[in-house]
Amino acid sequence: MAGEKNTPEKLLDLAETYIRTGGYSSFSFRDLARDTGIKSASVHYHFPTKGHLAAAVALRYRSRFEQALMDPDLPDFDPEAALTHYFYMFYQEMLSARQMCLCAVLSVEKPLLPEAVMMEVQAFFKLNLTWLRKTFARYYDLSVDSQPVDRQAAVVLAALQGGLTGAQALEDPEYFKRVAAGLYQGIFNTELLFPQA
Question: Which domains does the chain have, with CATH numbers?
Fold first, then answer.
């Protein structure tokens, strides 16, 4: 049937849901085989090991995130608009998925992860920090390597990730909104107006 997802995509979707709701250790290939109606050997055919599968999930997650970011190297890049969009990305992800950030969940399980998976997790965080540094460098008209830019990037990523974690733990999306709005007010001295859910 046209538009129907193929088996690897279904496996990636299922694995992402398992990881985001219960972590890397929350599922096996037998679970995926049962959920997709195929044999466990068929799961291994597409992804030889769980590490290969989780790394592919994390890579896909990072790629999706990267594609949604505005390019800070473009001449007409608007840092404030880009950062507003960035805040909205976290907010919409929280509302639509109602799950934890995939890479935040995986980072907690670092001792259990194969190296390839951890490398993808680190790449996600590095992507965000690099983008934030470039964006704040444009906003403040400072070097991308300057201390104020580096600190601001770290604070924003930590606060938004923490806001997602707190909202999930409290089952209260308003918690994230309070964190994000307070952070945004501190940067731009203006209110962050959230889009309609």
Answer: 7-188 (1.10.357.10)
Tokens standing for 167? Answer: 């909202």
Low-confidence ranges of the chain (pLDDT < 50): 1-3
Buried b (16+ CB within 10 A) or exposed e, 80-110: eebbbebbbebbebbeeeebbbbbbbbbebe
pLDDT at residue number 1:
41
Does the global pTM surpass 0.85? Answer: yes
Helices (H), 98-144: 102-108, 115-140
Angle in degrees, CA 54, 126, 65, rounded to 5: 60
Long-range contacts (CB closer than 8 Å, 24 or more residues apart) made by 63-70: 65/89, 65/124, 65/127, 65/128, 66/127, 69/131
